[in-house]
Every structure is written in C-alpha cells, then in structure tokens.
Design a protein that fits this description.
It contains 11 helices and 8 strands. It is α/β, with parallel strands linked by helices. Strands 1-2-4-3-5-6-7-8 form an 8-stranded mixed sheet, with helices on both faces. A hairpin with a 2-residue loop joins β1 (45-54) and β2 (57-66). It starts with a helix and ends with a helix.
Length: 306
C-alpha cells in the first residue's frame, strides 16, 4: 500500500491486531482506548439519552443538540457507529456525532444497536430501522424538521445507513433527505480487487473484511438490507456522499456503489482520501489529512440539510 506520508509514520507505531479473534476483547480494548481519550465538554452541544422500544427489547440512543432553543426546527441525523458489526458503542461514534451536530446545526441521534455474533443479522438492521421510525415519530418533541432527516454511518455503520435508506424507500418512509456513507462496508461477496490488495495486519484489511461477514450473517442469506450492494435497483434513494480511502480493502465496493447510484440518477458525491487506510482518522485525528477529510464530509451534509 502506498500511504500518505502524514499517516504512514503513525502506522509504523501500531502493532498487529485481529479485531475478530475475540469480539469481547475487542470491545474491552475499544472501551479502554476511548476512556483514555474522553471528549472535552463543549458548551455548544447538549447531550441526552433516551430509551426507545425495539423489535427485541429496549434500544438506547444518545441525542446531541446544539445548545439553546432553535428559532425553527433543526435538521436531524441518525448515526450508526462502526466496528465490523461485532464491536463499537455510543462512545465509538461520539466524535463524528459532535462534528455533525456543530457543522449541520443538527440534532444527531446515535444508535446503540445490537452486535454480532451474539445477535446476528437482521438484529442490527432492525434496531437501526426502528430508531429511524422513532426519530421520525418524535420529530416535534426533538425539535426536528421531518423534511430534513438524514442517515449517516461509518464502516459497518455505513452499511447500516445505506440499508436503512433502502428500507425507507421500499417501505414508504420515513422520507430521507440525505445519506452519508463513510468508508462503508457494502458487499459480503468481497469479490473486487481492493479486498485482496489491501493486506496489513495493523489495520482493517481484506482478511478482516472477509471475516466479519460470516460473524454478522451467520446462517442467514445476505439480502440488500444486510449488504446494500446486493440491491438490484438503486433508483429513488436520497442524495449520497461517500468517503472512500485509497488504501482501503473496502475501496472498490464503495466506488462501485457510488457509480451505481449515479447511474440510477441519484445525486452522488464521492470523495477519495489519497493514500489513506480504513479508519485512518481514528489513528491520526490531528493530521492535516484527517482534518481536511472531516471538513469535506461535514460541509457536504451541512449543505444538503441547509
């Protein structure tokens, strides 16, 4: 892999790690890592939690709002964290949710969906779609404009965001104004070249990408709500922004999904981060490359929801 100089030196200090070998250990590792880097209090943002009824029990969501009473209803963003379907929680996506809240002036609803392999497909998808229905039904209470509702997600969360967008179209709503897909995992078939050319045990590489799908799917047959690339028809979907990393095992499937969205006449923007590997922002958040990538996608969703 040819990496951008800013992040190549960061990766040199990262030991090999297999996140799929022991999902419980991976979750504990992430919790410890995030606990060591808690977000600073920001007086511009108010954070609350809510419990909503899900298809198999209660779902916890974290709601981020710009501080102060709005002059008019705000846009709303439903956010799904990453973690290869087997790890991650509300804290994992906290930084992205704060960026969304401030950049778009939006209320952001982050969803603590069920994880595999304890809860296989369609558990995570069902939780995420239930959270969309709850958010739309409670738009007035949350101060949201139901005409400016978006979904967003990173990595596995990008798969869930794309799947929820498909389901909202197929099931007659809630109507979505935008979908933000950050380095999304979209295709369980793993048949495109980047899955095999990205091989590095220090990051989420092709081996991890191939391994996460059986843990997520179990014995289930993949359908478009599991792996959105399997959808035959992409017409009628909301406008999309895809962040793609050049040195990412998921690069080619995201490029192909973006091409298909454009062919289906969906307004689509693709941004390829040069020389970047999967989730590089988490490894090197203070680099110019990471700041520029974040500024680009936050600007895109802010414009779309303005």
């Amino acid at each position: 892999m040819h990496l951008h100089p800013e992040i190549a030196e960061v990766l040199d200090r990262v030991p090999p790690f297999d996140p799929l070998a022991d999902p419980a250990a991976t979750r504990a590792y992430l919790r410890d890592l995030l606990a060591a880097r808690p977000p600073a209090d920001d007086p511009r943002i108010t954070v609350d939690h809510a419990i909503l009824p899900g298809p198999a029990g209660d779902i916890t969501v974290r709601v981020y709002q710009p501080t102060g009473a709005p002059d008019s209803p705000r846009p709303g963003v439903l956010y799904f964290h990453g973690g290869a379907f087997i790890s991650g929680d509300l804290d994992t996506g906290d930084g992205n949710c704060r960026d969304l809240c401030l950049a778009a002036g939006a209320a952001v609803v982050s969803v603590d969906y069920r994880l595999a392999p304890e809860h296989r497909y369609p558990a995570a998808f069902d939780d995420c779609y239930a959270a969309l229905l709850w958010t739309a039904a409670n738009a007035e209470r949350l101060g949201l404009d139901p005409a400016r509702l978006a979904v967003a997600g990173r990595s596995a969360g990008g798969a869930l965001a794309a799947a929820v967008a498909l389901a909202a179209r197929d099931r007659g709503g809630p109507r979505l104004a935008f979908q933000l897909l950050l380095v999304p995992a979209l295709d369980d078939r793993c048949a495109l070249p980047s899955v095999d050319t990205c091989v590095d045990g220090r990051i989420v590489d092709g081996r991890v990408v191939r391994g996460m799908w059986p843990l997520y799917l179990g014995s289930a047959t993949a359908d478009p709500y599991a792996a959105p690339a399997r959808a035959e028809d992409l017409t009628g979907l909301p406008p999309a922004y895809l962040e793609i990393c050049q040195a990412d095992a998921l690069r080619d499937e995201a490029l192909e999904y973006g091409r298909r969205l454009m062919t289906a006449d969906v307004h689509t923007e693709l941004h390829v981060v040069p020389g970047a590997f999967h989730l590089f922002e988490g490894y090197a958040p203070d680099t110019r490359l990471a700041r520029r990538a974040t500024a680009t996608w936050t600007s895109a969703i802010a414009s779309a929801l303005a």
